[in-house]
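Because discrete structure vocabularies remain unfamiliar, we first show an illustrative case, written as a sequence plus integers encoding its fold.
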Amino acid sequence: MKLRNSILATALCLSFATGSPTAHASADDLASFDAQIARGLPTRVCLPTSKSGQRCATVTQRLYSQIDTPQGGSARLFEATVNGRPALIVRTDTGLDLVGADEHEPVMTLADATDALPATGEALPAPVALTNATAYTVFESDADAAPEDAIHIWIFLHDTAGENDHAKFLNRYVDWWIKDMEKTIKPGMPVRVSVRDHVPGITDLNYDEGQDFERMLDIAQRGAKFARSEGAAITRLTKFVLFVDRPPANWPSNRLGAAVEKFGVSIVSNRGHRHVFAHEMGHLFGATHEAAEDRFWCITNMKDSLFARIPCWYYSGANDEYIRRYIAANRRK
């Protein structure tokens, strides 16, 4: 049930100032964590913090979505509890990162609001001339025969985004979305996330240039070409995301993300709230603003404003169903 997970509305945030476990860990720390996990779950682990201390958590379950990071790295996600409250742990090749329910993001208030803050993101329609043109096709071909259905999200970190700490990035934007996909939406197929940086032609893209849909199309085409170069299949469940710092100059001043479902692509600015990623993923998988809900304690992922509210960190029940239907309609026949 969604209510059972409502505590996560204040959960998923890194807070180094309060001594949260650092995203970088020594080889000994990583080996100790792995050894403890190998003994079986649930198990208690203690992670190093940024203040030279430790913070302990009970690891209860591993999430089985596949995550790979730049330079051939990988990441694993674990559900945990800290003092009985829900938490998540990211284990990358170089880091351990814990995020728990006492590390919440402040509610946005009137004093915080500027033109750059209240709005979340938009689903942009693709121009008909582009949508129907063979030259702009990025979806599957006969050469993309995949052995099984899978959802594959390719995230490209723009060179100016400042997202150099991949464990921190995953904890901030991705892990809680993956958990909701696995535990609530249950797509019936693997979810894979590939994070990449320093990809010429994509992460150095001048995204201010031209019209927004043209740059979105560039990202989709170049992302598909790059993914194929790494041996990946491109299907209608393959999506491409460019993470940037400031939003494109050709966007309205209050837009922090945008998606074009026809191209399977979105741009997300990290100047917005961390739920913008899940919001744009919703647009790419059939969720709508209209089906979002304004709960007593929070707003669901597809609400287009966070003004004076906090996010629930999940979709509404109606949008859960829209996402399931989208996945079912676009899986391999």
